Amino acid sequence: MSSENQHHGQSAPDAGPHPAGQTPGSQSSPAAGDAWHTVSGQSERTFVVSAGRPHEPNSPVNPPVDFTSTYTYRPSVEQPQVYAREGIPSFGPLEELIAGLEGGTRSAYFGSGMVAKDQEQPVEVQPALLFSSGLSAISAVLNLLPLGSHVILPKHSYMGFFTMAQQMAEKGMITLHRVDIAETEQVRTTLQDVSTLAQAQEAEVLLWIESPTNPMLEVADLPALTAEARRRSILTAVDNTFATPLRQRPLKHGTDIVVHSVTKFLSGHSDVIMGAAVTSDAELHRRLHAHRNLHGTIPGPMEVFLALRGVRTLAIRLDAAEKNAGQLAHRLEALAAEGTVPLRSVSYPGLSSHPQHERASAQLGGYGAIITIDTGSMQAADAVLENLRLWTPATSLGGVESLAERRRRHPGEPETVPEGLIRLSVGIEDAGDLFDDLLGALRTAAEILRENR
Ligand SMILES: Cc1ncc(COP(=O)(O)O)c(C=O)c1O
């Protein structure tokens, strides 16, 4: 078995993470437990603000960012920094911050993976790797796989990931096995079948998890699936973009690699495209770094500056957006029950009607800021989007501003996503204003649909 399948012997997962002082915006509380700590021993609310700041006398309060492609050398002096494609010191604060939040460490695993303040043993962060986009981080992970590997993936997942995996499969590089990631028994059976097949072929297997999934918001049993995959020496990767490390920490459950679209919640202002990968496995880290260097998928210094500035407010932004999302989801569900507007159903992990509500409550530190509504048809959805005034119809998510998009406008989105489904990325505006705007657009859409009948 190659190095990426050698695990650290993590212990069984414990209860889900629980952000300090968090009040989720819906009826039942998410995972209870002690406030978690980052690898620094600080609460993540402190850590996002304090990590990576220079402390020497007369140093700037914010770490400096180098705008340079290359570094001076003298043949007589050892040169740690040669060329910016290898990564530059200015990536450091953000790479350490993201790894610190996710629990990416260089040292052995500590039971729960979280480090209590009184823990004596120092823990060294293994910095995340920043990428030019979320998709380039995903590409680096898929490129770890030797030819002939098997990939088990959710039938609903971020469209770009699926398209990339599909193209690799069409070239005969990998074989795909699609599963309903929320159906634990189905995934277990697939893990077993594929692992038997792969053993016979001496092939590698990757389990790719997205949870909650984009855009269907299915919630996977992360601890159970990761444990099963590890038992079978299957490499695991989790796209943690929707939950963020403040609500879910897959490394703690034994996941090998976590990827992020930093573009979304982490940077939080819809002004940056960036990705990140985090792992506690030194060899995986080395290979992902080598891939990034050879493919040139590094972010620019300006993006690094903006993303670091954005992540400083992650904790308060996420709290505010999640509170709004909880309120909106409940109000929208009540509106759907009235039957007066084109609103068939509302999906949000914080609603008791969500099929994995219990699992989300046990596993996630909060239900997130993404809601989907099914308007019943493309016509209805488009009429709603045409008539929004406060919400911005746009793709993407995780910014301070609220965005709405009909997902099936993208040909790559599978047909199992309803034609009339609108994904709502809830921002930090006033929840009442957001609801009123949606209500107005839904009412106008109802009139348009009546006139066109
Ligand atoms: C869950 C998820 N992962 C990855 C990506 C890709 O990220 P990026 O747009 O930064 O390449 C996206 C983008 O929408 C996403 O939603």
From TrEMBL:
InterPro entries: Cys/Met-Metab_PyrdxlP-dep_enz, PyrdxlP-dep_Trfase, PyrdxlP-dep_Trfase_major, PyrdxlP-dep_Trfase_small
GO biological process, one term: transsulfuration
Region (Disordered): 1-44
Keyword Nucleus: no
SUPFAM superfamilies for this protein: PLP-dependent transferases
The entry's keywords: Pyridoxal phosphate
Cofactor(s) listed in the protein's UniProt record: pyridoxal 5'-phosphate
UniProt modified residues of type N6-(pyridoxal phosphate)lysine: 264
GO cellular component: cytoplasm
GO molecular function, one term: cystathionine gamma-lyase activity
Similarity comment text for this entry: Belongs to the trans-sulfuration enzymes family.
Protein name: Cystathionine gamma-synthase
Protein species of origin: Nesterenkonia cremea
